[in-house]
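Lab notebook, page 48
Experiment: co-folding of the full assembly
Goal: obtain a model of how the components sit together before planning crosslinking
Operator: M.T.
Materials (sequences as entered):
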Amino acid sequence: MKKGIVFVFTLALMLVLAACGGSGSSSDSASGSKDSNSIIIGVPGEPEVVNPNYSSDRVTLTIQQALYAPLFWESDGKPALADKLDVSADNLTYTVTLKDGLTWHDGKPLTADDVVFSVNAMIDEKQNSPYRGNWVFDNKPVKVVAENPTTVKFTLPQVAPAFENTLKTFFPIPKHIFDGVANIDKSDKNNNPVGSGPYKFVNYKSGEYYSLEKFDKYFDGKPKLDKVTFRITKDQNAANLALQNGEINLKTIQPAERNKVEKASDVNIITYPENRLSYVAFNQNVPALKSKDLRQAISLTLDRKDLIDAAYGSQEYAKPASSILTENTKFFTDKVETYDQDLDKAKQLLTKSGYKDSDKLNIIYLNNSKAQESIALYIQEQLKSIGVSLELKPTDPTAMSNITLDRKSAAYSLMLGGYIMGNDPDPYKTLYMTGEPYNYANYSNPELDKLWNKGAVTADDTARQAIYEQIQTTLADDAVVYPISYDNAVLAIGKQYQGTKAATPQPVTMFRDLSKLYIK
Amino acid sequence: MIQTISKRVLQIIPMLFIISLVSFALVQLAPGDPISSFVTPNMNPDDVERIRQSLGLDQPIYVQYFKWLGNVLQGNFGYSLINNQPVLGQILDRLPATIGLMGTALFFTLLFSIPLGLIAAAYENTKLDRFLNAVSYVGISIPIFWFAMILIDVFSIQLHWLPSLGMRTIGVESFWDVAKHAILPVTALTFQGCASYYRYVRSNTINQLKEEYVLFGYAKGLSKSQIMRDHVLKNSLLPVITLLGMYLPQIITGAFITESVFSWPGMGSLGINAIFQLDYPMIMAITMFSALLLIIGNLLADIAYTIVDPRIREVS
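Observation: model returned without errors.
Model output:
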């Protein structure tokens, strides 16, 4: 028996040594904390498919922003890989001229052919790109031709002003790598990405880190930091502690964590608009909420300042919202009905709406979000004051998307949500048009559907403005959703890092160009 | 004996089949849609539908199951729905880290809990025994993530002795570096492991000490330490074999919470991600591995029992 125990012990030791030996034998020199001229960025999960034709989650998009360069910068539309954009008089032809002398990370030239290849790979149904819809109108794809090595011509089957925004969020992938690959999404070439951004791929250790080093031929000048490492840290409390320790130099934090993080660590805090709307949606599948009076009555009982305080603890992290469009979106207007708190009017409308106590209302929200929980509690409390009782329904994220994506569901009455939809108003239609998959309010207004469709194909900016202003006004008058706030993102970055202005904080990916960060 | 073993081995096949059937059904019945983890409202519904088809998620559950089963029988565990990479490769990537962490923790758990359990039993109801009991109660009842956070706060933040996360310093490839990163998670796991193993060893030993052969030993004039070493030790450690058998799958599947808190790149964090994103090929592969190991672990424990305990051999 004693032999047995000794055996077990030896086995355990062997396993330990085997495991550690495995790690010691690999001798790649990753970027790192040992190098002084580098940055370690904390990200909460693994990257998925690191390829701009597929990536859609925050972590992958963040890493991609350093690896690949877009034609134009999304935040202000200024040219990046592109030199300029010309739109024809009939608004059907878009001509993009690329900068001269662009190269991929492997030294091969980046030309118009790469752009054509990337777009066609997205249009190809067999490649299963989730972004195909951006390039196809009424089943007719955009025609894309390389006129010469630096000029690409896009011909649209119909006028589509939102297309300009599609071009501005477009990152080409290298043709010489992916040409002839049957399934680009499953290709292991995505594990060794070749991009054109400021930093090139070094290595990826699953569960540990994704490391990059500077690309000297980056179109916008040599990056100032030598190395960038994305460190995967699932547990956010532990990641915040690592920020104090200097094991992580940059990460996004929750507004509620700011004081703790700022006090404990040597960091600067940067807040900037995330172009995200937080809102309460009223599900019109619930009979009582078909009444506009009831929706307005509920809206009138709420106070945005209180809601923001409840959710974020301070007005600093969110701005009271008015319209369903965010402020960065083209044709945004704040001249809409905002339902400032008025309890007397709310009570009148409630009586008018024919609301009965038997109309049981509930509110569905994410059970892992402190902010949403506080908002839900606040709404419940406020509604009591006009005599409406609200059942709380905290739900885990997968179940919540299951319930709320069912367009026939009457299982939720009020829903807490948030969206980041970009700079053009056209994509917002999937949230408000009849029968669209993300129409959480199950709102239907044929007149407005027509306007959405018209807005998508109107080229003239003044005419478009009128359309989208009317859409915003109507949605506000109908109290389809109650817009709460335009949220800010909060970044914590080590005090030694400078150049955050030039690097330009932006939604989702933290910074738009990490190459501008440097150490003082 | 050989007959019994071969019978047990044959039983593994239907057992795994039923386990796979049940877990597949459970994964499919879970609320949510794997597609939703990478779909945004910006995407066109037609494209989403096309992706669903390409992943085979539009087919009835039983078709998906048999396709999956067919592939597994050919040794193909499929592609992750989330990052489109082969499931098996990702698991093999993570295994060394988990085996290293869990193996080390098991080693220290046994190293500490067995002698402590024996000592506590030998000095039952003394101050020492009560002290050890109190510590083990604490170990069993405090949440491990909380204990882990305390460890990080004290040893990484306050004292700056040890790193708080990951398996190595980026850019450093040395055994010592990995060991340094392992100290805190191993401590957390060992503390928790010891707390339960200790109680097991202690109560077994106390039972053994009441047996007649112990009294007989005293009567023969043996000292307490001789009795403990030569007779009680062996008998009270027998049930630990069963515990080890049950621990085997954990060596592979890892510790979800501890790995998350310390960002240890092992199977635990891989598994928990898969569960949150309903990545069923990944969930199924991990479930099948751990089921297989659990069965094998129990089988080995039973065999070991038969070998070391003659009474069982006689009965069977």
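Interpretation: The radius of gyration of chain A is 26 Å.
Next step: discuss with group before ordering constructs.
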